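Hey, quick one: can you model this chain's 3D structure?
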Amino acid sequence: MNQFTFYANKPSQNYNKIDIWLLGSIFLLWGLGIFTLYICSQNFAIRAFGDPVYFVKRQLLCSAVGFVLFAGFVITDMKYIRKFVGIIVIATFVLCILTFIPGISITKNGARRWIRMPGNFSFQPSELVKFAIILFLANYFDKQDKLLDPEEKSVFPCVIALILFSVIVFAQKDFSTGLFILLLGILLFFVSGAKLLWIFPFVLLAIPAGFLMITLNPYRLQRLIGWISPDEYGSSINYQSLNAKRAISAGGIWGSGIGSGLSKINSIPEVQADYIFAGWAEAMGYIGVVLYFVLLAFFAYRGYKTAFKNPDKFSALSTFGCVSAIVLQSVVNTMVVSGLLPATGINLPFFSLGGTSIIITLAMCGFIVNASRCEKIDEKTTESDEINIESLSYL
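Sure thing. Here's the predicted structure for all 395 residues.
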């Protein structure tokens, strides 16, 4: 069915060293994100709160929580992480339900996506759904692979869980994240070797449903119209997009620097959120943009290498999902900022202001680093020992 190969159940030897290159790329992405947040948010932070590092301090505080989870996932044995997958999924579901309870949830622009937290903070459960659904699908696919009786094999619970969480996120009026979760789940179905026939009917239903959700919602329809006509509606629906393009162009080859030269990003409302990449491009120019994508590509290379050569299928699939979630979300965001995709509301991992996003991103990175510590593949193993995903197509 496909050509992906996971090196599961092969002869191996203990290998407890962390992938230093992978770890370094994670810290570099995080550090560049904090730096970019500072240069992009200080003017707005002064006007709104009288403190140029207001947003940076909040992001650092949330990063501290994220690094605690990062360390926890790094040092915890995979078999114990697997035992908590069910608890993580149930807790995620409960948190999603809490977003619909008045007094507990926070409503912005008609959307119920956040839960009130102490200290004027909020938590967005849909960010946790990405990680939870990855762990659930990977765990279930691995268990199904170990069943000896073909009649006992079924991915129906995976289909139900994926659709249930997607629908809940859609109900929170977070269309972009719900669609991203659905596509991420389909990707894991594909690489696991499960027959896509299981989910194909739901995809066919999702296409007209998605069309209706866009066309019947004025705000989403305006975004689509603005993307189709990028040079029009400059003072309304295309205001952010046009100013983001101006900021990117103003960066030139070498960038405008990090000082007062950054004039274009000041015209982008809340540039510290979804359009922060425009600030990085204006400050660092074409060279900075290339540097970012090289670093992102290097992170993807080390992460996917860990996934494809991991001897444990649960670790392999989960790592593949986590790396894909971070990389694909990054690519989608940069394409939106540059005008190649309509506005989606999906932020830029490591860079965009968002406590829940940085916490979950670092937690996923901790899992990826843990997976890089799994047993090393014996170089003497022959190709006949490889398990191709096509052999798993009976699921």
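One thing worth noting: The first strand starts at residue 5 and ends at 6.
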